[in-house]
Amino acid sequence: MPIRLNNVTHTYSEGSAFQATAIRGVNLTIEDGEFIAVIGHTGSGKSTLVQHLNGLLKPTDGQILIDGEDLNGEKTDRRRIRQKVGLVFQYPEYQLFEETVAKDIAFGPKNLGLSDEEIDQRVRRAMAHVHLDYDKYAERSPFELSGGQMRRVAIAGVLAMEPKVLILDEPTAGLDPKGRDRILSMVRDLHAQGGVTVIMVSHSMDDVARLATRLIVMSKGEVVATGTPREIFRQVEMMEKIHLGVPEAAKLCAVLREKGIDLPDDLYTPDQLREALLAKWKEVSPC
User: Fold this and answer.
1) What span, in angstroms and rounded, lies between the C-alpha atoms of 151 and 142?
2) Would you say the pTM of this structure is higher than 0.70?
3) Structure confidence at residue 257 (pLDDT)
4) Alpha-carbon distance 127 to 153, whole Å?
5) 33: left (phi over 0), alpha (psi -120 to 50) or beta
6) Domain spans, the chain
């Protein structure tokens, strides 16, 4: 289910004294099965962009095609498309409201008019995806759980709709390191199992370096670059110009090159740097 954006612009409060253009002239294609990371400084338009992908926001100008269908066409059933494109906001746990975990996750599927058996199966599958044991947590109140567990319940509620595309806006915001690792591990596994396109907004260059297959770089409401992590993170000058950093491994690699160690300029993960240094060590060490 590819997504195509053709010259998409969005202006808030158009025609008023508070008019502000958040994104302008965005042209993008997101293919099935990609793991996309949208990165950019605060106010670059990342959240506005992704909220267009399931029709939550309507473009001021331009067109969005979901699987070839105009999302904002007069005859388009936007409710049906939203079921295919799941959006998880920042701090989604604030939207939990049911008395048990299972009931909260089942809320969306119930609105689809599914049978009780199908709803139960979807709840169980969704809980398995977010690494929450059904027998242990299904009948517990979500408000008795840790912050990270509550967030996983909220994400499970979106997964229970079985979307083809999953959008996550800063999914680890405010979590401790253990909670961050659990969420990112969950997202990585979900994508690896196949069948779901993942689009993740993130400020963490290290996270997107490890997870994403392609990056979309935004600045001042425009897409300024798109490419693999390797292609983007070697453009240090461009990243610094728009006030973005590069992964810690890439920074260390640059320092080592300055010290005279001949290393490639496109290393951006700890594993890549470790392998390159090991290869260098083998070159100079005696047999």
Assistant:
1) 9
2) yes
3) 84
4) 7
5) left
6) 3-246, 247-287
User: What span, in angstroms and rounded, lies between the C-alpha atoms of 180 and 185?
Assistant: 8
Specify the pLDDT at position 143: 94
Q: How far apart are CA 245 and CA 252, in angstroms?
A: 12
Q: Which residues of the chain have pLDDT under 70?
A: 285-287
**Does 3-246 carry CATH code 3.40.50.300?**
yes
Query: Could you report the per-residue pLDDT of 103-142, keeping only the tens digit for each?
Result: 999 999 999 889 999 999 999 999 999 999 999 999 999 9
Strand order in the sheet with 35-40: 85-88, 165-169, 197-201, 35-40, 214-219, 222-227
Compute the distance between CA of residue 40 and CA of residue 211 in angstroms, rounded to an integer: 17
**Residue the block writes with tokens 């709840």:** 123
Bin 243: left if φ > 0, else alpha if -120 < ψ < 50, else beta.
Answer: left
Q: Give all strands of the β-sheet with 61-66 in edge-to-edge order.
A: 20-30, 3-12, 61-66, 69-70
What value does the mean pLDDT of the chain take?
Answer: 91
Query: Contact 264/254 with Cβ under 8 angstroms?
Result: no
How many beta carbons lie within 10 A of that of residue 146, not counting itself? 13
